Amino acid sequence: MTNRDFAKIFEQISEILELRRADRFRVLAYQKAAREIDHLGEDLDDLYRRGGLKALEAQAGIGTSVARKIEELIKTGSCREYEKLKQQTAPVMLELLQIPGIGPRTAQKLYRNLKLKSLRDLEAAARQGRIQNLPGFKAKTEENILSALRSLRRRQKEARYLLSTAEPIAEDIIQYLKRLPAVEKIDAVGSLRRRQETIGDIDLIVGARSPRRIVEYFCRYPRARQVLARGRTKGSFLHEKMLRVDLEVLPLAAYGSLLQHFTGSKEHNVELRTMAKSRGYSISEYGVKDEKTGRMRKFQDEAAVYRFLKMDCPPPEIREGRGEIKAALSHHLPRLVTSRAIKGDLHVHSEASGDAAGRLEDIAAAAMKRGYQYLAVTEHTASLGVAQGLTGRQLLKHRQKIQAVNRKISGFRLLAGVEADIRADGSIDIADDILAQLDVVVASVHSALRQSEAVMTRRILRAIANPHVDIIGHPSGRLLLQRDPYDAEWPEIFRAAARAGVALEVNAYPERLDLNDVLIRSAIQFGAKLAINTDAHAPAQLALLPYGLAMARRGWAEASDVINTFALPRLLKWLGRKGNIK
DNA sequence: GCCGTTTTCGGCCCGACTGTTTTCAGTCG
Q1: What is the pTM of this model?
Q2: CA A563 → C1' B7, Å?
Q3: How far: A166 CA to B25 C1' (Å)?
Q4: Which of A197, A223, A283, A427 has its CA 20 to 30 A from that of A576?
Q5: What distance in Å separates the CA atoms of residue A116 and residue A64, rounded to the nearest whole number?
């Protein structure tokens, strides 16, 4: 069972308990356990094998009860209490909960009164006008249920958006709102500001004096398909691209609190407020209230909110409730890697790779324009059929071309490299004597993605053991919204990479963003180095770097963890440790 | 169900919007 499988079970337990109107804190406890399991850097299986129940209970959000259930699941493959709960609950009830606007109470009432067997029954009942006759329901609710059912169907196909898709949509709405002179300050917040790899909805905040008029104007945005809420200070609509856009407007005097509140995450805010409450403060988007005196302190700038609580201000990217509050309180926040620290890109394709464009000269020029000291040209190899890559001999010829370009420029260096293929058995598809003559060897898995966890792990470990391999490219193989990462024993891989001095890539391509934040953090904890690369297939794509940078920051990476923050001499020394010629 | 520089018991974040109500429950972020 993967951590996701465990998490799903606890999510379901919490939903069933919610339907049965169990104590709401019990419901929350299971939700929290599921979330924590999802964000664990290690497999629960391994954790249990290593330290038993104690190790499980040491995790935040996991206590005796959840730990025992995990143990039962590992040992027997099922959990009696969970099975019992499932038996006592009609499956359609859980489906009802998925519909926006329907919570446990409404689900209960609908199920009892309409004897539903499926969501189709619900839709039929709504169409026939049978819902508006139920006690506590009217025509409006019926309409809302129909519309929610429709959007649920659409959303199930495409529930989330790439960060790179959501960003321009948000930017367009921001430009629209900025046309109102009354808008004094505006920011995209929520998961966008935290730079999550995919975005479920867009959150915007505005600092202004006349909230209601701005909310009105916001709801008239031309690409709004349907207004979902239109209040005094808050509004929200469904964008024609089917993402939800939320807006909150408050006076400038409280803008810092608003920014803090809406940036989230939910987990971060809950933890922060719990901590503040224990000190007698109540935090909301309006400010920090002293519960004894009832006095409300307002903050114009966000850092001041944290300062008031005697803590450092965690960068938005790490506000996920994964230890940043503790670190901020003890003034031990990581000093996250910045774009300024990046000295080069170590995974870039030129026109020599069949699927890429750009001459070496243009790539070098684009890199110099970004202020880089170096850039590694890493073409595909011939075994990657679709990309028409190079053979070993062609790679050596290509290296000469690269060196010729280097002779024409100064203050910058193109490195000759390759993105070699890790074959199904873990061998590299380019001979050692060729690899030895290249500056940078990125090794990536491109085929046989469905190997078992054990086989895939052995495969990557063998690649790491190759003395010429410098970087494992897009290590988990995921394609966001398209393909799941393959299974591998990441702790084992990170340990081996740390020992062998092989860096793990943080691939900045918006569909990849691979490794992800959780694995990045785990890799760092195992002492492995990272390389934040664009995998650019055209010179303009060097500009994708900020996406990879965001992912590294979300994984708590500091400059010292990232090899392409090294100045050229130090990088060459790091690369040359295995006897490659430089 | 979880958790502990107030606590091993008694707490558990905060507030807006909607719909159906005449003062609030349910839901959401």
Answers
A1: 0.85
A2: 47
A3: 34
A4: A427
A5: 37
- The domain A91-157 is placed in CATH, from the list 1.20.120.450, 1.20.1070.10, 1.10.150.20, 3.40.50.920, at 1.10.150.20
CA A271 / C1′ B7 distance in Å: 18
Q: Give the nucleotide at minimum CA-to-C1' distance from A231.
A: B17
Q: Token pair 């206590």 is at which residue?
A: A63
Same fold, A3-87 and A91-157: yes
For chain A, domain boundaries: 3-87, 91-157, 161-250, 255-329, 339-576
Query: Which one-letter amino acid corresponds to residue A126?
Result: A
Q: Which residues of chain A have pLDDT under 50?
A: 579-582
* 3-state secondary structure at position A572: helix
**What amino acid is encoded at A368 in this protein?**
M
Distance CA A288, CA A273 (A): 10
Q: CA–C1' distance A89–B8 (Å)?
A: 34
- How many CA atoms within 13 Å lie on the side-chain side of A517? 20
Domain A339-576 has CATH 3.20.20.140: yes
The rounded distance, in Å, linking the Cα atoms of A86 and A92 is 11
CATH class of A3-87: mainly alpha
Query: Smallest CA–C1' separation from A13: which nucleotide?
Result: B1
Report the C-alpha gap between A304 and A316 in whole angstroms: 15
CATH topology of domain A161-250: Beta Polymerase; domain 2 (3.30.460)
Quote the tokens at residue A347. 């995974």
What distance in Å separates the CA atoms of residue A525 and residue A531, rounded to the nearest whole number? 15
Kindly report each contact of residues A448-455 with a partner whose C-beta sits within 8 Å and lies 24 or more positions away, as own/partner.
A448/A424, A449/A477, A449/A483, A449/A486, A450/A486, A451/A424, A451/A486, A452/A487, A453/A487, A453/A488, A453/A489, A454/A489
- Tell me, rounded to whole angstroms, the distance of Cα A326 from its chain centroid: 21
| pLDDT, position A579 | 43
